[in-house]
Amino acid sequence: MITTVSPTEEQTALAKKKAKDMGSIKNSITKGEGNVSGFISEIVVSEVFNARYTPCKDYDLVLPTGETIDVKAKRTTVYPKDYYECSIAKTSLHQKCDMYFFTRYDERNNLLYLLGGVYQDDFFKKAKFLKKGQKDGDNGFIVKADCYNLAIKDL
Length: 155
Fold this sequence. Notes:
Layout (H helix, E strand, L loop, with lengths): L2 E3 L3 H14 L12 H14 L3 E2 L7 E2 L5 E8 L9 E5 L9 E8 L4 E9 H7 L1 E3 L16 E5 L4
Parallel strand pairs: 4-6
Antiparallel strand pairs: 1-7, 2-3, 3-4, 5-9, 6-7, 8-9
Helix pairs in contact: 1-2
């Protein structure tokens, strides 16, 4: 079930500041263009799950249980359908986290869609691999980097 959240002015301002300070991210598919959506996602998800925000190369959040989450964000201009896909870039396979949590952020309307989470092992058991430039048969999107995709409904 997709949950829609309207980030607060404080959350949005903090995300924009962090994005500006960071600039381009190594291994980013969009070369840093999605930084705001990434930070908004991390900030909001950390608050929703009462998780410690401890970003490092492997994960972004630590749950009260000690499990680690890497938050993955995409930008959007539409409400996500359950057949839309969540992606892990091949360049992110080095990450050691317990689970992924996926979001989509509509910057124009300041809406964050919380799509769901999946344990890392389960993600790769279910996901399909797509090569850069390949057309995703489910939605026609041309992938920008080698990646593994899983539909929102399979989270």
